[in-house]
Amino acid sequence: MIKENPRVSLIVDNKQLTTNACGAMIQGRARTFSITRTLLSILSLGPNVAGFSKKYPGMLQ
Description:
Elements: E1 7-13, E2 23-29, H1 35-44, H2 46-55
Protein backbone atom coordinates (compact mmCIF):
# COMPACT_ATOMS: atom_id res chain seq x y z
CA MET A 1 0.00 0.00 0.00
CA ILE A 2 2.76 2.49 0.90
CA LYS A 3 4.80 1.47 -2.16
CA GLU A 4 1.84 2.41 -4.36
CA ASN A 5 1.19 5.75 -2.62
CA PRO A 6 4.05 6.87 -0.32
CA ARG A 7 2.37 10.12 0.78
CA VAL A 8 1.54 9.83 4.49
CA SER A 9 0.35 12.02 7.34
CA LEU A 10 0.18 11.62 11.11
CA ILE A 11 -2.04 13.69 13.39
CA VAL A 12 -1.63 13.81 17.16
CA ASP A 13 -3.82 15.85 19.51
CA ASN A 14 -4.62 16.04 23.21
CA LYS A 15 -8.39 15.50 22.72
CA GLN A 16 -9.26 18.79 24.43
CA LEU A 17 -12.15 20.87 23.11
CA THR A 18 -11.27 23.96 25.14
CA THR A 19 -8.64 26.68 24.88
CA ASN A 20 -6.13 24.02 26.00
CA ALA A 21 -6.51 22.17 22.69
CA CYS A 22 -3.28 21.49 20.84
CA GLY A 23 -1.95 19.09 18.28
CA ALA A 24 0.49 18.50 15.48
CA MET A 25 0.35 17.14 11.95
CA ILE A 26 3.34 15.63 10.18
CA GLN A 27 3.20 15.06 6.42
CA GLY A 28 5.73 13.53 4.10
CA ARG A 29 6.78 10.60 1.98
CA ALA A 30 7.24 7.16 3.50
CA ARG A 31 9.82 4.58 2.51
CA THR A 32 9.66 0.86 3.18
CA PHE A 33 12.62 -1.08 4.57
CA SER A 34 13.33 -4.75 5.06
CA ILE A 35 13.39 -6.16 8.59
CA THR A 36 17.16 -6.69 8.31
CA ARG A 37 17.82 -3.09 7.29
CA THR A 38 15.55 -1.80 10.07
CA LEU A 39 17.34 -3.87 12.72
CA LEU A 40 20.75 -2.75 11.47
CA SER A 41 19.59 0.88 11.61
CA ILE A 42 18.39 0.49 15.19
CA LEU A 43 21.63 -1.23 16.24
CA SER A 44 23.70 1.52 14.62
CA LEU A 45 22.08 4.05 16.98
CA GLY A 46 23.72 2.41 20.00
CA PRO A 47 26.88 4.56 20.10
CA ASN A 48 24.86 7.75 19.58
CA VAL A 49 22.46 6.87 22.40
CA ALA A 50 25.40 6.05 24.66
CA GLY A 51 26.99 9.44 23.90
CA PHE A 52 23.68 11.23 24.49
CA SER A 53 23.22 9.41 27.83
CA LYS A 54 26.69 10.41 28.91
CA LYS A 55 26.16 14.06 27.93
CA TYR A 56 22.61 14.29 29.37
CA PRO A 57 22.36 11.84 32.29
CA GLY A 58 18.80 10.99 33.31
CA MET A 59 17.14 12.11 30.06
CA LEU A 60 16.37 8.58 28.81
CA GLN A 61 14.78 7.26 31.98
